């Protein structure tokens, strides 16, 4: 059966009159680009088509499967190119930046992440990185360890969590080494900057383990790392303006003040919903003060410019949580749609995409509830309720 299907798909005439009408573009284009990858006679066309398949949003279970396949195929090409294979498709891949630089910038860096997750010993890489003298830590390996742990693949989960625990031990030892007055392997500036970098990643790593362990020590270490990084930032504008650190602080405040929905998985890796006791604090907060805090939080998230270690899907989710769906419908809708339609490539992307879909479901339910509650106000005029409360904001603007 599989062979028959493949033979049928390979018929060149099958796709000659594929019209990009709305339904086909929205619901079949990912599949279409996959087929074009297999059938394209030119290597550059193959690469562009598989990249365009990955670029399409993941909106359904079928999309999830097709996206995974497309990513797998693209990673195969990237692996050949990265390992300096001289095949024609690798030569074409080298020229992609000249043909479609925007598409290349969106996808290739994340394929690089996948390549390292699959082929590199992250523990050994971190050991080597921390052993260098007179050197500012390269953060990429720390990011790889964190992003690998934010995975929905249960087979990889335990291995990735053990990597995080091992990395925390190494980083704690490195902090002790940096604080040792007899250490002469770094300048004062290098020592301070390395401490700041380590504290940022201890926030990330202890945050992951806080969501997935009964050990309260991870929560304490999370808070401790946050305070240490904040103290260092007081005397340095570079640290204070570090986008990654600003993001971590805004995310922390977001998770303290804006409680998860009752149905949300509080143990989701990297979710940082650390304590249910926050509900008690929230009840006594003045609503006006809370509104001011949310505005400040949103402005900090909005000002972030560098995204190297920040997941774009999660960034839109945090912005979404800062808004009140019933009062700021268009903005809230915009953020959750951006989260859902963001490119999905890494394990972390897949996890955050699922979270975005869950929140979008809640958003729609909330809108429906608002519509029902407003029936009397609108004199049971369904069309008016639909236009004001249920209609796609993008259609309203047309």
Annotate the secondary structure layout.
Layout: H1 2-9, H2 22-27, H3 29-39, H4 43-55, H5 61-82, H6 88-94, H7 96-99, H8 101-119, H9 122-130, H10 140-149, H11 154-179, H12 188-210, H13 217-233, H14 237-240, H15 243-257, H16 278-283, H17 287-302, H18 312-322, H19 329-341, H20 347-373, H21 382-390, H22 393-396
Helix pairs in contact: 3-4, 4-5, 4-6, 4-8, 5-6, 5-8, 9-10, 9-11, 10-11, 10-12, 11-12, 12-13, 15-17, 17-18, 18-19, 19-20, 20-21
Overview of the molecule:
By secondary structure, the chain is mostly helical. Helices cover 70% and strands 0% of the residues. The chain is built from 22 helices and no strands. The protein has helices at residues 2-9, 22-27, 29-39, 43-55, 61-82, 88-94, 96-99, 101-119, 122-130, 140-149, 154-179, 188-210, 217-233, 237-240, 243-257, 278-283, 287-302, 312-322, 329-341, 347-373, 382-390, 393-396. Helix 20 (347-373) runs antiparallel to helix 21. The two termini are 46 Å apart. Mean pLDDT is 82; it is low at 14-24 and 276-284.
